[in-house]
Design goal:
Elements (H helix, E strand, L loop, with lengths): L2 E6 L5 H19 L7 E5 L14 E7 L5 H19 L6 E7 L6 E2 L2 E2 L1
Parallel strand pairs: 1-2, 3-4
Antiparallel strand pairs: 1-3, 5-6
Helix pairs in contact: 1-2
Length: about 120
Amino acid sequence: MPTLNLFTNVPVDAVIASDILKDATKAVAKTIGKPESYVMVLLNGGVPIAFAGTEEAAAYGELISIGGLSPSVNGKLSSIIAEILQTKLSIDSSRFYIKFYDAQRPFFGFNGSTF
């Protein structure tokens, strides 16, 4: 149910992508308090992005969840995801935005229905 969608202008090879997907899945599950089996992470590398007027390494993320989000949780997740991107892709945390959505059950589809 929690879904993290990450976009970056940095090209991402398969090995690094796999590491990011695993690390981000664990981080989202642990921080939000949901099982890893519910977490989806999408990574879109090599996307044209300009941030502050330059095309230096940057990223944007959106995290959608039914519950589990709060100002303190969002802050922790922002820090953890920024750290993963810094470690794996050398994206400075000052060049990363993340938006959090707390979705209501009827607005989140799964298995041919809604939650």
